[in-house]
Amino acid sequence: MIRIDPRTKMILIAITLLFSMLIPTGIYTCLWILLIAILGILLGRWQKTVRTVIVFAVLWFISLYFLSLFSGTAYISLMVWLGLVFKCYPCCMMAGVVIGTTQMGEFMAAMSKWRIPRSVVIPLAIIFRYIPTLKEDWSHIRDAMAFRGISFSPLCFLKNPGTVIDALYLPVLVTACKSADELSSSAITRGIENPGKRTSRLHIKFGMADGVLLLVFLLAFVCILAINKGGSV
Amino acid sequence: MNIEFKNVSFAYPGKENGALEDVNFQIKQGEFVLLVGESGCGKTTITRILNGLIPSFYGGNLKGNVLLDGKDIREYKSYELSSLVGSVFQNPRTQFFNADTDGEIVFGLENAGIQRDVIKAELDRVTSELHLEQLRNRNIFKLSGGEKQKIAFASVYATNPKIYLMDEPSANLDTQGIGEIKQCLEKIKREGGTVIVAEHRLYYLTSLIDRVIYLENGKIKQEIDGDTFRTMDLNTLNAMGLRTNKYELPCYEYKKCDYKQQETKCINDCLSLKGLSVELNKHKVLNSLNKDFYPNQIYCVVGNNGAGKSTLLRAICGLIKPSQGAISLYGKTVSGKERMQKSFIVMQDVNYQLFADSLLNECLIGAKEDSLALAEKTLDEMNLLQYKDCHPNTLSGGQKQRLAIAVSLMMDKEILLFDEPTSGLDYKNMRLCANILKKLANKGKIIIVVTHDEELISQCCDEIFKLENN
Predict the structure, then answer these.
(1) What keywords appear on the UniProt entry (chain A) (predicted)?
(2) Does any CB of chain B come closer than 8 Å to the CB of residue A231?
(3) Same domain, B419 and B275
(4) Are B355 and B287 contained in the same domain?
(5) Which of A70, A109, B180, B391 could form an SS bridge with A200, CB 3.0 to 4.6 Å?
(6) Taking CB atoms and an 8 Å limit, are A147 and B340 in contact across chains?
(7) What is the model's pLDDT at position B66?
């Protein structure tokens, strides 16, 4: 297991973003997923990484062998949907790896080294922090709905879509407002607004691993880009 | 650090509750002061003025002077104030910012830009002084409420503030968690720190208090010194709308039942658990439980964190599937799905359960066409009829809870389960809650309450059911 600088992770996200923008979906998408998977495993997040790779592989397999079984509208809508999923998959997977392996303090200190203003960093940090809370909220809301005889099943949704949406969005909104308020006030009273340079308990520095990873990702990207521009795919 | 409030008045924008009117008091360095009063009396407002959240975060118009060692509080920036005043809030779920405990403890130090070696040394100091060895390098999301609250405290303690502010730190904690917070407070008091606590539950603070400030409708009604407070009897406190100042409550005279040996006796007049076991992640949480729950009775389930209290509720109402055993209702074995239709949990955070645009509509969701009269009658029973056209979100905590109960009545649920119904409620609302539980019991409902509130138990409980780990 290795540790890398949060800034390296940010750059890797940027490269992946460029990859998704510039390279058409194809065999290179699989290659890129593999690269991200190696990164995820190196950073010690093997379980979830393996799971996301399997999901990708299944979808890829479906698109190769089963898509041709459909025809007409079903074919087109499935194809468009899968195309969209494949386009977003590398970025989402990369983001998952980065969020899952970066501690908040580390992230904020790295941003501070880059001199990114706090007015940008703090909202970002609160969003990151809110995601797991949303997950908890979600399961509570699902329980609460069950007692009222409402569920997320397609059947229930078709019968009364309005009620299902109400039962979901109001509690999410109310609890989100409350959580965000409480999170922010707790952060403010602990000096998050201090404009001075932030330090970190963890040593944040570009090291060997950072260099190697950046090189691998950049090289891979440039090669793929060159091949693509050459028109051989 | 000395604190002085001089003719302080404040109102939240667009809200009546929690306003202050011409408040004057002084707190000296090293004093331990308790702020008490009913919900909305302004005690939280005082803590928010002291940590600078008012007016910078909550807005509103602050009049008068608040002085810290003679200097006006408005002259401090939020981050300057943060090194002087440390705050611990009510909700353990939403006051940590990092996912890991180590990062959270040093969060304040990192914000202040302290050097890394110093941060490391401080982390070790806090660990040994607060005995946090077990909690180091853990995922905060996986900790219990008490442990989270302890980390919140450690994070404040690490920055070495002059003043400690606690806003209902015990609201979501069990007896054990409260004990841990109490130990932390004892430590600061010994070290000569200034402590200000706003609380509803008072018993755990009694021995520490130097002075009590009693607020009513935003004004200081009375200042009571610690020794006088310690001798006050329950009737006087209750008349002031306050909770008990002693831990000894009659509730433990109730029989504790030994649920393992006890055979279930009832045949067709109760809810009966027969050899109920529940496994979560291959870990046995409940182990062959036998227990009958009769209608017209109020059962209180107590036990430490991890003893399986909420698991029990979730198993009874069909949210999780037991690994062994059966549950029968009035003599018939009932499946999870049937139990789900017949039961209702009033959750600790009742916000998850309310989603209509008015109280009346909340009651009418899923109801039959002609239920309007019934809905109004039910709301009346819960003392909510006057708000029937209001949005549920404008209600107070206690009112929202009663609305959820009204919903369960409208749906004609037979089994009503309560998860910590009195967390964060003041004396008056706690009494109201106890009375409503009794009312529901008289209607012939089966009532099971998971709680750690000894006062609620002594008010309304018919039988205590103690769960122990495994």
Answers:
(1) Cell membrane, Membrane, Transmembrane, Transmembrane helix
(2) no
(3) yes
(4) yes
(5) A109
(6) yes
(7) 95
pLDDT digits (tens, 9 = 90+) for B366-411: 777 778 888 999 999 888 999 989 888 888 888 899 999 999 988 8
pLDDT mean values, one per 10 residues, chain B (470 residues): 93 86 94 93 93 90 93 91 93 88 93 92 93 91 87 94 93 82 92 94 93 94 94 91 77 49 66 87 83 90 82 91 88 88 90 89 79 89 89 87 91 91 88 92 93 87 81
Minimal-distance CA residue of chain A relative to B123: A201
DSSP state letter for A146: H
Judging contacts by C-beta atoms under 8 Å, the chain B residues touching residue A104 are 97-99, 103, 107
Cα gap B234→A35, rounded to integer Å: 68
C-alpha angle A18/A15/A47, rounded to 5°? 115
Determine the Cα–Cα distance for residues A56 and A32; give it in Å rounded to an integer: 12
Please answer whether residues B43 and B202 qualify as being in contact, where contact means their C-beta atoms are separated by less than 8 angstroms: no
Looking at the fold, whether B152 and B259 belong to one and the same domain comes out as no
pLDDT for res A202? 84
User: Which candidate from A146, A170, A190 shows the least CB-CB separation from B111?
Assistant: A190
Residue with tokens 């991890």: B306
What is the span of the domain harbouring residue B393?
A: 251-466
The torsion region of residue A205 among left (phi > 0), alpha (psi -120 to 50) and beta comes to: beta
Residue with more model confidence, B5 or A148: B5
pTM: 0.85
Counted across chains A and B, CB pairs separated by less than 8 A come out at 171
What is the phi/psi pair of residue B104, to 5°? -70, -40
* CATH code at position B272: 3.40.50.300
User: Which residues of chain B neighbour A149 with C-beta distances below 8 Å?
Assistant: 341, 366, 411
pLDDT in tens, A26-73: 899 999 999 999 999 999 998 999 999 999 999 999 888 888 888 888
Claim to verify: residue B232 and residue B272 sit in the same structural domain: no
Question: For residues B316 and B446, what is the distance between their CA atoms, to the nearest angstrom?
Answer: 11
Domains of chain A, by residue range, sit at: 6-106+206-231, 110-190
Instruction: Please answer yes or no on whether A201 and B110 come within 8 Å at the CB atom.
Output: yes
Structural domain includes residue B245? no
Classify the C-alpha dihedral B331-B336-B340-B346 as positive or negative. positive
> CA B375, CA B387: separation in Å to the nearest integer?
13
Distance CA B135, CA B124 (A): 12
By the 10 Å C-beta count (0-12 exposed, 13-18 middle, 19+ buried), A56 is classed as buried
Do residues B87 and B47 touch, judged by C-beta distance below 8 A? yes
